[in-house]
Amino acid sequence: MKDDDQSLLDTTAYRVNWLVERICALLLGIMVIVIWFEVVERYFLHLGMTWTEELSRYLMIWAALLAVSCGASTRSSEMIWLRKTGSTTNCFAALCKIKLMLFSSTNT
User: Fold this and answer.
1) CA gap 28, 62 in Å, rounded
2) What is the pLDDT of residues 55-102, one digit of tens each?
3) Which of 20, 63, 65, 96: disulfide with 27, CB 3.0–4.6 Å?
């Protein structure tokens, strides 16, 4: 019975991840179209609609938030990989932590 539950859980996780990946791709595609529309209407039509900027911002935020779960499910982050494998490479772990601190503490 446990193997059936694990198999059902793996199948459900795979299907949810597949759906989230497609949603991320759709959001990014819509974002590209909206940004191109914004460029055309601002520089060629000399209009200044603000909804395109706000929509592209929200699309980017949602795509990034959903992409984090896709990255976690495929273990594509090196910190997730280090925790999963219990790597003995302390130098690599230290470099990853330094990179994380540098990029998370930069002010824009």
Assistant:
1) 9
2) 999 999 999 888 888 777 766 655 555 555 555 556 666 777 777 777
3) 63
Cβ contact 66:24 at 8 Å? yes
Residue with tokens 């191109």: 36
pLDDT digits (tens, 9 = 90+) for 31-63: 999 999 998 988 888 887 888 889 999 999 999
- In this structure, what token pair is assigned to residue 76? 């594509």
Phi first, then psi: what are they for 41, rounded to 5°? -70, -25
CA distance 69 to 26: 16
Which residue carries 């989230």 as its tokens? 20
Per-residue pLDDT, 105: 61
The span from the CA of 18 to the CA of 66, in Å, is 12
Residues 7-27: b if buried by 16+ CB within 10 A, e if exposed: eeeeeeeeeeeeebbeebeeb
